[in-house]
Structures are given as C-alpha cells and as structure tokens.
Amino acid sequence: MSESPSTHSTQRFDVILIGGGIMSTTLGAILKELQPDWNIALFEKLDGAGQESSDPWNNAGTGHTAYCELNYTPRGTDGSISTAKACGIADQFHVSRQLWSHWVNEGVLGSPRTFINALPHISFVWGEKNSKYLRDRYQAMRAEPLFAHIEHTEDPDTVGRWAPLLARGRDNSTPVAASRFQDGTDVDFGSVSRQLAGHLDAQGVDLRYSHEVSGLTRGADGRWDMKVKNTASGEKFSASARFVFVGAGGGALSLLQSSGIEEIKGFGGFPVSGQFLRTTESAITEEHHAKVYGLASVGAPPMSVPHLDTRFVDGRRSLMFGPFAGFSTNFLKAGSYFDLPLSVRPHNLVPMLQVGAANTSLVTYLMKEVAKTHKKKVEALRDFYPQAHQGQWELITAGQRVQVMKKNEDGKGVLQFGTELIAAADGSIAGLLGASPGASTAPSIMFKLLERCFPGQMESWKSRLENMVPSYGRLLNDDPKLLEEVSAATAETLQLEP
C-alpha cells in the first residue's frame, strides 16, 4: 500500500490523519507499529499537538474507569442499578493502560509521571435518597470483578479521612455517603498527545501544524482528495490518501459532511461550553488528593456532573471544580460562531429540531448556568468544600464539547452522550463525533476503527495487537485472573502502586 509523496501539486499518502489530539496521535502510533512502511501525514489546524479537547485544562482528565462517575450506573425503572456501561468503560480504560505501558516499555512515551498519576476516585453524595442510591450502587458494583475492590462509607469521620475538604465545616445533621477506589488515576491527555506526536515525527510521519483541511471529496481513483492551507504562510496545496481519519474534535462533523458519505446523514451536533473554578494554593491542594464526583443537577447533561478534582499538569498540583455549563455556537474552542448554523443540512434538520423540542429542560439548565455569577459558582463549590473562600478560586474556560444528535431506531432525533465512530461502508474514511469518555478510551476506539476499516489485515496484525495489549479481544470482567495480571503489570510499569 505504501506510496511516496508526489512532487506534483497533489501530495499523495497512504493515510492522512486530520487533527493532532489524542485520537489521531493514538491511531498514528498504532498504525506505524503495525505498518511501518505506510506513508502517513498528520495535519493539525493549531500550532501544536493536543491543544484543543485533549489539553489538560480543556478536559476533566479523569482517566475514565467508571469508578466515580455516577451517570454510568443509572437506576432502572425496577429500582436496580445497571453496571453494564460502567463495566464497558472500565474494561476499555484497562486497554488504555496496557497500550500506554507497552509504549513506555518501547520508549514511545516517556516517564509515566509526565502523563499519568495515581489518584483515588471517590463518589460523594448527601441526603437520604442519594445515600441509598450510592449504597445500592456499591452493592451492585462490588459483584463485578472490575469493581470488587470498591470501598463504601456513610460515616462522616471516614469521609473526612478520605477527603478532608469534604467534611470540614459540614453540618453532620445531613446524611452523607461516599464510595472509593484507591487505584484511580489522573491523566494529562495533552501530554500523551504531544509525546505521541513527537514519536510520529521521529518515525517519519509528515507532521504539519498550522495546516487546515477544507473539504473532502472522492476522486475517480477512489482516493480522498482535500485542500490544505498553511495558515502561517498562506500556502495552499492538495493532498490525497487511500484512508482518511477525521479526528478533528468539534471540527469533525463539517469535514465528514463534506465527504458526502451516507453514514453521516442524520447526524448533527449540539455544542456545550464549560468553565471550571481552579486553585493552585498549596494550603488547599495539599489537603485534597482525589477525584470526587457527585450527582448531576436535574436537567443537566451527564458531562456536567460536578466534581472536585486534583490535577497534575506540568508537574504542578491544582484543584478544579465544575464544570459550569454554558452555550456557544462554536464547535471548537478556537472555532467560529457560525459552526452550528453551518452544520445544519436537510438530512439533519428534523432530527435537530426534534432534539430541541425534547430537551427543553437542558436549554433551561444552560440558561441558568450562563447567568451564574462567580459568587454563585463558589456557592456550588461549597456543597463539596463547605469552607471554600471565593478569593482563592479563579474561573477558567474549558474546552468545547459537541454532543451528538442522531436518529434513533424509530427515526426520531435524540441527543446522545458519548463517543460515536462514523465509518464509510468501504472503510476508506472514518471519524469521531461526541465527547466523554473519548480520550480515556482512545485505544479501544482506534482498535474498533481498525476492525471496521481494515478487516482484511486484522488477522496479520493480531499477534502484534496482542503484544501491545495482552487482553486484546477479551473482556477482563469475564476473566478475573487475567484482570489481576493486567492490573498488576500496568500498575508497575506506569508507577501506579499505592
């Protein structure tokens, strides 16, 4: 399949990756290991890798293991707690840990401390009804091998030992409950993206920053053609590839729409912006060593679940609280206000209108969030940290999230929370829409992409994939012995031992 770049006006590649975030760099590194002879190019609109949704200040950096995110364990109409989604996400994060461990051993990634740190994950609620939910969730989760090591308490003193800021100054007349996993993590996906981009550059990938792709068209020869502009110099040129991956975050929808593939029809995007309160004052940050997630407000989207997080960015420790949702028509933080209106097509107009009509509570919630003052945001923080002082917290703007709008099985428009892989029937082009838990599960999503887009090569790649990820093709929740082996091995390599 390998081809050399053309010296003519159209530059030809085997693979073109659009976007320099965690998804494109992960796929690029996997492909370079599987097919080192393939000629690959990566075009990133900004002047460096991992600066949009993968940037540490633009995402929660949880390392989604489904340990503390309560929206992954909903209560059903029969009163039971469903753990299916949580198990799926946790299994996928173990795949991420295995691939990162492999890359650390191979020198693709540097010291684990530059991108991942051990950090307990805690779920925290208050009130009788919420405490009962968390108790029932604990009982359901501990029955799953992936979550068998969960701890639970409804004792305020124990909560105080786990996370002092949660308990200090709290009125103990209100019941509280908390569940904890000691082996959680904090991940800097911006650092992972930049390290993988550096590796790709060293491996001969044609890595170009400040290069914007506009439009994708299918040529008569079956290749995908695109126009590329160097935004720094103004130079324009054409490029083509046998396979294209659109990992451009919020910019993926318009590029996939321009391709005209049948699979993108009916899809739309609903942008949600966010803000966080942040402090770097050591007197506060040194007393909180955990990611603490609560329950979302009524009408709030799952991505707006409040959480008080320890973060490790560039070796510096901080605390973040939020997110406080807002609304902007941008699809990217560095995007355009015209992104939303220009994404409307005849094939997605009705589904988008149906989503709007069915989600008035979300619209109301967003309006209230936009109207919140800094003082009101600190008051929300005090639900978690009762003694928080307004002057110690700054407000930062996080990344833009574009939630997927699509047709369900009945043909009606629905708002979907999660990550959606879109691929043409012939596997020649694929892209991602949506948001959380995308970054944490990037390797699993990319393996799924390989299976869908390169079915003819999967058998020849299998042994190398199993070398990268020992559990490849198997579910760890179904194999407790393998789960134990994988957990211990990756904890040692990634330096995550308690």
Structure description:
With 498 residues, this protein is of the alpha+beta class. It has one domain (10-478): FAD/NAD(P)-binding domain (3-Layer(bba) Sandwich). It has 15 helices and 20 strands. The chain has helices at 22-34, 84-106, 128-141, 156-162, 164-167, 189-202, 252-259, 282-285, 339-343, 346-358, 360-371, 374-381, 442-453, 458-468, 480-493; strands at residues 10-18, 40-43, 116-118, 121-126, 151-153, 176-181, 185-187, 206-208, 211-218, 224-230, 236-246, 268-279, 291-293, 307-313, 316-326, 394-397, 401-407, 413-416, 419-423, 429-434. The strands form three sheets. Strands 4, 5, 6, 12, 13, 14, 15, 16, 17 and 18 form a ten-stranded mixed beta sheet that branches. Strands 1, 2, 8, 9, 10, 11, 19 and 20 form an eight-stranded mixed beta sheet that branches. The protein starts with 9 loop residues before the first strand and ends in a 5-residue tail after the last helix. Residues 3-8 have low confidence and may be disordered. This is Probable malate:quinone oxidoreductase. It is an enzyme of class 1 (oxidoreductase).
